[in-house]
Design goal:
The protein starts with 5 loop residues before the first helix and ends with a helix. The chain is an all-alpha fold and 145 residues long. The chain is built from 9 helices and no strands. The protein has one domain.
């Protein structure tokens, strides 16, 4: 049997146990900025601190959606602060892979956690932790981890 990838190992503590998806800062999960609203520097810094640990996990991913990887590579090339952020967390890693995997992980976590916090899964017959674990497995598979 193949050992689990670092991504699956790192995510496991956050998806197990009763109501685990909403247990990680659930009170903040539902708050989102309005589209087009420029984030304050402090918000950007906090987001980079939270998402930074995902970057090295995906920086060496051998697969992933090509179009998203290309867009993320362009973002890092065009915005020096993004390239510096990736380099700080994943020195020598592929910025496109690192950012694509991180953005995908963030969006799936945000989706599952916010729906759980808002009670959207109530009465649907599944444990949100099971759904989140399935999403994490799908992401790991998509990225070749």
């Amino acid at each position: 049997m193949t050992p689990p990838s670092p991504f699956r190992v790192a995510a496991a503590p956050h998806v197990r146990g009763p109501r685990a998806p909403s247990g990680v800062h659930g009170s903040r999960a539902a708050g989102v900025a309005s589209p087009g609203y420029p984030a304050a520097g402090e918000s950007v810094q906090r987001a980079r601190e939270v998402l930074g640990p995902f970057l090295p996990v995906f920086a060496g991913a051998p697969a992933g959606p090509a179009a998203l990887r290309e867009e993320m590579t362009r973002w890092a090339r065009e915005v020096p602060a993004v390239a510096e952020w990736v380099a700080a967390f994943a020195p020598g890693g592929d910025a496109g892979s690192a950012l694509a995997g991180t953005v995908m992980a963030w969006s799936l976590l945000q989706g599952v956690v916010s729906q759980e916090v808002q009670g959207q899964f109530s009465g649907m017959g599944h444990d949100p932790a099971t759904l989140l674990a399935a999403h994490i497995d799908s992401l790991a598979d998509a990225m070749g981890l």
